[in-house]
Design goal:
Blueprint (H helix, E strand, L loop, with lengths): L1 H4 L1 E3 L20 H15 E3 L9 H15 L6 H23 L9 H12 L11 H13 L4 H6 L2 H8 L6 H5 L10 E10 L14 E8 L8 E6 L4 H7 L4 E8 L12 E9 L1
Parallel strand pairs: 5-7
Antiparallel strand pairs: 1-2, 3-4, 3-6, 4-5, 6-7
Amino acid sequence: MKKLILLVLIVVTLGGCSEGAKERPEEISQDVWDAAIQYTLMIDMRDAETGENILSLSEQAALSGKLSAMRESSKLSSEEKEIIGYVDDLAMQKLCQELDGKDCASRRSYKETMKIISTTFGNEALHPKNFRVDSLVKLRQETAENQGSGEETESLTKVEKYMKSNNISLTAKDVQFDMVNNLDKNFVLAGTAELDDYYNYGFDSDMEADYFCVRVTPEDGSYSDRWYLYFHRDSFNALFEKLKQGNVNVITTAVIPEFRFEKNQGLMAQVVRVEYY
């Protein structure tokens, strides 16, 4: 808990932005307003001791899924969805930066999105002093433990539990048949994984230095439904070593970055989170 308090916010130069906190519009509930501020701080803050993001890659993916679900919720007003949408874009840009070192091509840049958010809330509202450690603890509990309870949980499959705990609604099958409309969106793929050397026929071959490629046959599919997934070597080294020994059953959170997408491409995506057994 002590370490969680030692945080620092990345300073972004935002010309022309208000320094004070902005007043909450009546159309936006206090809960949504506060949540948007806390999620923004989580995304943008770093640990003061290590300089690393306070959210791990899997936590970032879970938060992105949570924000996407909120953005599509019928319970939110259009004004609330707009604000959550800004934070959702920020979360996705952070994921793209972590995975590829640059922004997603299909969305506003990270800096532009932060400028909009800062203008909406005011810089004072986004000051590190306003960060609540309990909000981070709650997110981590949700990420690790939000598996449901009782008879409902017992009736869910392992993949359904994974999707529920990570706030993801899209499956690989959904994306497979509507790829263009699901770029930069997290989806779940579960199946049998094996190492592959697909670089020269898939995404840019220069990815091989930083990524290893895995061929995954979906548990509900066949040979023709195989996906080629790209895993960041440093982030998923333990899985790489296990795959060198043979096939592994996996459940992954993957995304097709729009800037890598090519018309009529095969089933290829990058992985942001994985469970294997």
